[in-house]
Amino acid sequence: MRAGRTKYPSACGSRRRGLRSLAALTVVLATVVLSGLSVHGEAALVDEELWRTGRQDLAAGRVADARGKLEKLLEEYPQEPQLHLVLGMAAFKGGDTETAVARVRRSVALAPDDAEALTFLGWLDLEVTGDVAAAIASYRRVVELKPEVAEAHNNLGVAVKRTGDLEQAIESFSRALEADPGFAQAASNRGWTYVEQGNWQAARDDFERSLAVDPEDDGALHGLARVRRELRDYSGAQDALARLGHRSPNFIYWLEWARVGLIRYYWVFLLLALGLFFYFRYKRSWARTRHPGG
Fold this sequence. Notes:
Elements: H1 15-20, H2 22-35, H3 42-45, H4 49-59, H5 63-76, H6 81-93, H7 97-110, H8 115-129, H9 132-145, H10 150-162, H11 166-179, H12 184-197, H13 200-213, H14 218-230, H15 234-247, H16 252-264, H17 266-290
Helix pairs in contact: 2-4, 2-6, 4-5, 5-6, 6-7, 7-8, 8-9, 9-10, 10-11, 10-12, 11-12, 12-13, 12-14, 13-14, 14-15, 15-16
């Protein structure tokens, strides 16, 4: 993130990648919540020792201690949205997703215009409860509140893509890139959406754009390999898959590399097969000529 820009967690372009981003999402949200209070809870909680130490415990990974302190504080401040949001974070980090969803929903109910709470709720609905429509509603509200924030458009695009509305998803990713031309994740997400449309050249442009910003983006690199294969750039596809294979324990990349190699050099195998066929046919014919009665 650039200095001075509000940090918002981003959804990823596929469920598998989204789950891999869970830890990063937690860290980002914790940074937002723990680095300073929003206007919704500042006046009531800013001088409370349990609020300060509870957030410190959460940041340090002492989830049980954090929940104990914050729940005790909730008895005195049951209507503070920031308190419900941080308790939702604590529950989430402790693996209690049901409580996390309930707390964050309560936070949003108390502060309907809190972009951080809406974003977290949208992610929970998308990746935990599976309520895509609810996630879209939350993300749309964030876009209304923060239209200048690229992550807000990217998150909406990811959720909309789950419904199969590829054109609308592309529009959201494009708006994310208008807000931040260097947003690699949005470029990669749009690239994968173009893949689903079969728009190979547009997908290739987006994957290359993403990798120019973030060379370690395995999703974009895998997408580039797929596109190069479809465009019959088999050498380029194998190169991308080899790079993935060298830095990932996933053996599937090497299987794909071998598969592309078979396609790339099929004519060699065809010539070998034809050569063997004619060799043995000639050998049999020659043997019959030498031993006509055999």
